[in-house]
Amino acid sequence: MKKNVMLIGALLIGITSFAQNTNNVQLGVRGGTNFATVAGDNYDSPDSRTSLYLGLLAEAPLSDHVSLQPEVYYSAQGFDITDEPDSPDAQFKVDYIQVPVLLKFYIADGLNLQAGPQFGFKVNESLDFASGEDSGSFDTDSINSFDFQGAAGVEYKFPSGFFIQGRYSYGFSEMIEDVDIHNSVFSAGLGFMF
């Protein structure tokens, strides 16, 4: 955990230095709703966990139609376990500090497509059972602390600085070592550029 905090700190310092040394950089905030689940051979499409994300971003123009957008945000993820035989209803919560570095391609006034790598640092993991259910024995520290992902999305930015966006991210790293299970998150939200 200490190593993750140091890495996040180093990334934030790098993003801040980049923002200060680039002309026309805009800083902003974003937040919204995650529809998170997992994908892979070992899990058959569990129900999604609906949760929130909230964070900061910087946008630095590289040309008239291309920008670089580093971000840092808190993302509540995981999945729900419901209607499974021999298993009580539960919500598996895995929360991350996500650090995407996206390229944004403006295809029309305000409308852009974005894609890039995303680095996830686990900050919380828990398994919450439905009221009255027996939790049995479960190792709540089984998720890897780092998740390398790819992210892609679409955004519309209004002249006022407000924007709306949708994004999908997929974890290329295994959530649990040697188990074919990966994060899969759709998100929708809005934000404001200062």
Automatic annotation (TrEMBL):
<protein>
    <submittedName>
        <fullName>Porin family protein</fullName>
    </submittedName>
</protein>
<feature type="domain" description="Outer membrane protein beta-barrel">
    <location>
        <begin position="18"/>
        <end position="176"/>
    </location>
</feature>
<keyword id="KW-0732">Signal</keyword>
<dbReference type="InterPro" id="IPR025665">
    <property type="entry name" value="Beta-barrel_OMP_2"/>
</dbReference>
<dbReference type="Pfam" id="PF13568">
    <property type="entry name" value="OMP_b-brl_2"/>
</dbReference>
<feature type="signal peptide">
    <location>
        <begin position="1"/>
        <end position="19"/>
    </location>
</feature>
<dbReference type="InterPro" id="IPR011250">
    <property type="entry name" value="OMP/PagP_B-barrel"/>
</dbReference>
